[in-house]
Structures are given as structure tokens and as C-alpha cells.
């Protein structure tokens, strides 16, 4: 079975070959293709409706805000995957149906040696497959503490994400038209209209002199 290190090496090799193939095609295309620019090719659209104005216009900043918030929360959600791996493996080790030591697999097994499945779980979590003190119950107790610790860790992390999400929601960053949203509920008081007679009698007016 492939180890986590071998899997990472395979992925790195695949990404490296893909990058080399991509840049090699771009380089070959740049050297081989003809370079014949003209006025029509330099337009925004080579066909369709005639171009009105310049293409170098300011992009709506609301798109940047939404994209930035999406990237921030989407990248932080990626941290759930390592936690899920550790939590899942630790939960499997706490199960009484899983043989932790070799003696639980077969009567002739060594009680001071981890079973192949338990050793694999230790390796997948990045820990040394060594049976500590306490035997099988010690391993299950350690795995239970690890599962509870990882659950508390992800609970705090998720709470921080929710606080940040509530903050940007409260500020109105998720609203498309923020200027209208901030003015929601505000009542503008206006003075009642004045009659012509009151205007003529008001001090300082030309007609009152």
C-alpha cells in the first residue's frame, strides 16, 4: 500500500509534468505562430457589435469584494480536511470492534504488538506505530483524547469563522448595493411647504421691506 509520502511524491510529479507540458506548448506556440497584428485584431471584439468607447474601464468594485470574501472563507474551509483525517482515524481506534493489538486478531498474536490495521492508522495520522503503556486500552484512551481534542480544536476554528462571517454580514459587505442598505430604515424629515404669504412676511425677504 502506498504511504502518504509516496502519494505526495506522485502528486508533485504529476503537477511538475503538467507544468512542463503547459509551458512547453506555450513556448513552442510563441516561436512558431506568425505575429501579424492589425487594427481589427487589436479591437476588443473581432466580430459582432461595433465597439463603443474604450475597453479600459473601471471594473465594479463590488465584484472584488464578493470574490475576496469567497476566497478567504473558501481557503479556510480547506483546513477542515486535515482535521477530518485525524478525527476519523482516531475515532476508528476507539472502536471496540477494531483489533488494536495482534492478540485481538488471533490467539497466537503478540499482545505487545500493534495489529496491522492499528499500525496503518498510526502511520496515516503521521505517528510512529509503537504500542505504548497500557496495551490496547491505553491506545483506545489515547485515541479518545485525541478525538476530543481535535473536535474542540475544530469547534473553536469554526466559531472564529462564524464570527468573521457575522461581522462582514453586519457591515453589509455581502449586500450588493451597500449604499442603499445603509440607508434602510432612515426617515428623512422635511420641513412643511411654506405658503406665498409666509414667504413674503419672512424677515430678510425682499417683499417684506
What is shown here, in short?
With about 210 residues, the protein is mainly alpha-helical. About 60% of the residues lie in helices and about 0% in strands.
Structure, explained:
The chain is mostly helical and 209 residues long. The chain has one domain (4-175). It is 58% helix and 0% strand. It contains eight helices and no strands. The protein has helices at 4-32, 61-77, 80-94, 102-105, 116-124, 135-171, 178-182, 196-201. Helix 3 packs antiparallel against helix 5 and helix 3 (80-94) runs antiparallel to helix 6. The model is unreliable at 205-209 (pLDDT under 50).
Topology:
Layout lengths: L3 H29 L28 H17 L2 H15 L7 H4 L10 H9 L10 H37 L6 H5 L13 H6 L8
Gyration radius over CA? 34 Å
| Coarse morphology | flat
Largest sheet: none
Question: Unreliable stretches, pLDDT < 50, 5 or more residues?
Answer: 205-209
Mean pLDDT rating: 77
Number of domains: 1
Please trace the helix and strand order, writing H or E for each element.
HHHHHHHH
Relative helix content: 55-70%
How many E-type strands? Answer: 0
Count of separate DSSP helical elements: 8
Q: Which secondary-structure class do the elements indicate?
A: mainly alpha
Strand content: under 5%
Question: What is the terminal-to-terminal distance?
Answer: 103 Å
GO cellular component, one term: plasma membrane
Family: Belongs to the complex I subunit 3 family.
Keywords: Membrane, NAD, Oxidoreductase, Quinone, Transmembrane, Transmembrane helix, Transport
Transmembrane segments: 6-28, 63-84, 146-169
Amino acid at each position: 500500500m502506498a504511504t502518504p509520502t509516496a502519494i505526495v511524491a506522485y502528486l508533485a510529479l504529476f503537477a511538475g509534468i503538467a507544468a512542463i507540458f503547459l509551458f512547453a506548448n506555450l513556448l513552442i506556440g510563441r516561436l512558431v505562430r506568425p505575429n501579424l497584428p492589425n487594427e481589427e485584431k487589436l479591437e476588443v471584439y473581432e466580430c459582432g457589435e461595433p465597439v463603443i468607447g474604450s475597453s479600459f474601464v473601471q471594473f465594479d468594485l463590488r465584484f472584488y469584494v464578493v470574490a475576496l470574501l469567497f476566497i478567504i472563507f473558501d481557503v479556510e474551509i480547506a483546513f477542515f480536511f486535515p482535521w477530518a483525517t485525524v478525527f476519523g482515524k482516531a475515532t476508528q481506534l476507539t472502536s471496540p470492534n477494531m483489533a488494536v493489538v495482534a492478540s485481538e486478531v488471533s490467539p497466537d498474536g503478540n499482545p505487545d504488538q500493534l495489529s496491522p490495521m492499528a499500525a496503518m492508522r498510526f502511520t496515516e495520522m503521521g505517528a510512529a506505530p509503537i504500542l505504548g503503556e497500557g496495551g490496547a486500552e491505553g491506545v483506545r484512551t489515547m485515541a479518545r483524547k485525541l478525538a476530543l481534542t481535535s473536535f474542540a480544536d475544530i469547534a473553536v476554528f469554526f466559531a472564529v469563522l462564524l464570527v468573521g462571517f457575522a461581522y462582514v454580514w453586519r457591515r453589509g459587505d455581502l449586500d450588493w448595493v451597500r449604499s442603499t442598505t445603509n440607508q434602510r430604515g432612515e426617515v428623512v424629515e422635511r420641513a412643511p411647504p411654506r405658503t406665498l404669504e409666509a414667504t413674503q412676511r419672512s424677515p430678510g425677504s425682499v417683499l417684506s421691506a
